[in-house]
């Protein structure tokens, strides 16, 4: 039996429900969340809390668990119509979220298995962050799309979170109790992909010693997520088109058609319309996949997600306890960076920062960004990272004040020739323009250059050790 503490301020469990839980192997004890007993929390193996309006009760419970030195996983119960509250609970550290609307024995059996196999401190499930208004609009649209059982194409740059959005579509749909099967179409040779997706009959080829259902069959009643669909071969595209049309599959070496009850979600970072023009992607398949199309923006287009994502990742790396933190200067540096690698790059930068900080707060000097250079429109010379004319000034520069008219301290220039003098003059002109204007666009107009060129120059300054605040970096 697993000892469970049940917190629900609205409705206590009936004796029949307690008995049903006992039959599933759950010994449930009901408690008041305002006065939980520390002894009970220490011995509990699973915590269940019902949330109605906000995650405040979850946060309060987590503080009680921390005081009791307990790492018991928390299951949050929310109304199925309040999907955003469920996402908030996952962000705050809940192991999983289930519906409070009705008792489902199969669902609780899955929760029991999850709690036994994936305790909170080892939970690697990717949580959801929708702090930026752009992200919140996308979430609201995804919730509506999830209610309609149509094929969806998710587009967006590499590392932006396309699979996360696909999981949201699955979890918010009527298929949420079914399996979610993800497959990367670019990960294997064509013959292996065909076998993985469609399955095979016994004896269909050398080594086929038994019947093997494909991923489409394994996803019966649930969702199939096909990542990197733009990398699928033209031959397999024709077979996938037939599956989408007929909603049935024939295993390799078989004759029988197997009916499918699945939802297909595909994702790509490629321009499929350009691929159609190049005759590498089927136009008829494109229109089958795009019954509804969701575009997830790059991380730079949803800047208010950056710090919540960073804090979430650091919390996960700290075992659910927020011991790792960023200094304010490091936060500003993360917000001002353009993130060409999106969320994956953010995680890489934070991992490097954790290693370099060695337990101390992560500061600017611990953040090593990936050097993906962007050439200025008028400068075609190759970039030379080893030349850093401003590195010697970075340590002695004066940080800008909070006021937008802050004065930047000019570094002392050594007599290193005309080239260095010109570079310093350019730096000084840019800093003066930024301190005397309200935005990057106004500064670019004053300097007589385009905002894009100024953005590239600011990025070079950051790479050379000069901190540019977020207000001037956007």
In short:
The chain has 474 residues and is α/β, with parallel strands linked by helices. 41% of the residues lie in helices and 12% in strands.
Report on this structure.
- By secondary structure, this protein is α/β, with parallel strands linked by helices.
- It has 4 domains: 2-122, Response regulator (Rossmann fold); 133-295, Rossmann fold; 301-366, Helicase, Ruva Protein, domain 3 (Orthogonal Bundle); 391-473, no CATH class.
- The protein contains 20 helices and 14 strands.
- It has a 5-stranded parallel beta sheet, with helices on both faces.
- Strand 11 and strand 12 (258-259) form a beta hairpin.
- It starts with a strand and ends with a helix.
- The model is unreliable at 117-126, 373-418 and 470-474 (pLDDT under 50).
Might you state the CATH topology name of the largest domain?
Rossmann fold
Q: What form results from the Cα inertia axes? A: flat
Total number of distinct structural domains: 4
Q: Uncertain runs with pLDDT below 50, 5 residues or more?
A: 117-126, 373-418, 470-474
Q: What is the spatial order of strands in the main beta sheet? A: 2-1-3-4-5
Let me know the CATH homologous superfamily of the largest domain. P-loop containing nucleotide triphosphate hydrolases
* Residue share in helix: 40-55%
Give the secondary structure arrangement, pairings included.
Blueprint: E1 2-7, H1 15-23, E2 26-31, H2 38-43, E3 46-50, H3 56-67, E4 74-78, H4 83-91, E5 96-99, H5 105-117, H6 133-146, E6 152-155, H7 162-171, E7 180-184, H8 190-198, E8 199-200, E9 212-213, H9 215-218, E10 223-227, H10 234-246, E11 248-249, E12 258-259, E13 263-268, H11 272-277, H12 283-289, E14 292-295, H13 306-317, H14 328-336, H15 342-357, H16 391-394, H17 418-435, H18 440-447, H19 451-463, H20 470-473
Helix pairs in contact: 6-7, 10-12, 13-15, 17-18, 18-19
